[in-house]
Amino acid sequence: MTVTASGRPETSGPAGRPLPRVLVVEDQMQLVRALQINLRARQYEVLTARTGREALALASATPPDAMILDLGLPDVDGTEVIVAFRGWSRAPIIVLSGRTSPGDKIGALDAGADDYVTKPFAMGELLARLRAALRRDEAAGRDAALVALIGRWLVDLSAHTVQDSDSETAAADSPPPRLTPTEWRILEILLRRPGQLVSSAQLLAGVWGPGYQDRTNYLRFHMTRLRRKLESDPSRPRHLLTEPGMGYRYQPDPGQPARLLTALPAAGVESG
């Protein structure tokens, strides 16, 4: 199987380019089938989920290029899925819902959705809005390599790599740490907000999804592991800081904020 630079399996379209991956989150199976047929006919790779929690787990394991999301899901409200997904992904979200009130539309858009289509809908219009959202996303350069310095390590969020900041003195017996997918998701949220406080509830919803806002022990466990892997002195962290009773913060060194650089060579991702 061929794998792209981002680590995703390559499903090739014309000229060997990967097909855009669309996650459809909808519990009406007849509508899901109609969307699958129309999207695949137009060279999209399609993933489907019936619940919000299933959608977030699938998006975490197989990141989509765009999401089509119903608000009336069996387990959680779709706006909760938007908030959680926005914690670590900027992929476009198009809401496809039978809710027509201005309040519902405003709530979804304020939560982070990019567009809102009401049911019943014209398939051609939905597909045109999807194409427009993907064009805007591509133009915004979502996949630019955000690289941040933590201790001695350069952490590249786009390529999911960790590399010694001084390649000339990098020790062969001290290889770069390997981070788990959960640790990468936590870093994604913190590093994209340098110097800003991120509440525990925001992190828990963004990493684990709705319903986990009280599981602060999860964060303590993973933040301890991240400090051991990345900080020069884990007992006195300089970059991955705890704000007691409030949340966490990524604090760059003065004069060395998170910055845009070219992608770094791969160093591997730990499973788990």
Question: Could you walk me through the main structural features you see in this protein, from its secondary elements to its overall organization?
Answer:
- The protein has two domains: 14-139, Response regulator (Rossmann fold); 146-260, Winged helix-like DNA-binding domain superfamily/Winged helix DNA-binding domain (Arc Repressor Mutant, subunit A), CATH 1.10.10.
- The chain is elongated, with a radius of gyration of 20 Å.
- The model is unreliable at 1-10 and 257-272 (pLDDT under 50).
- The protein is α/β, with parallel strands linked by helices and 272 residues long.
- Helix content is 35%, strand content 18%.
- A hairpin with a 3-residue loop joins strand 10 (240-243) and strand 11.
- The chain has eight helices and twelve strands.
- The two termini are 21 Å apart.
Read across the widest sheet, the strand sequence of neighbours is 2-1-3-4-5
- The portion of residues assigned to helices is 25-40%
Q: What is the C-level CATH assignment of the largest domain?
A: Alpha Beta
| Helix vs. strand class | alpha/beta
Query: Radius of gyration, Cα only, in angstroms?
Result: 20 Å
User: Whole-number average pLDDT?
Assistant: 82
Distance between the termini: 21 Å
Q: Helical stretch count?
A: 8
Strand content of the residues, in percent?
15-25%
Give unreliable regions as ranges: 1-10, 257-272
Strand tally is 12
- SSE sequence, one letter per element: EHEHEHEHEHEEEHEHHEEE
What is the number of independent domains? 2
The profile of the biggest β sheet is: 5 strands, parallel
The assigned CATH architecture of the largest domain is 3-Layer(aba) Sandwich
Assembly type of the chains comes to: single chain
Q: Could you state the CATH homologous superfamily of the largest domain?
A: Response regulator
Per the principal axes of the C-alpha atoms, what is the gross shape? elongated
CATH fold descriptor of the largest domain: Rossmann fold
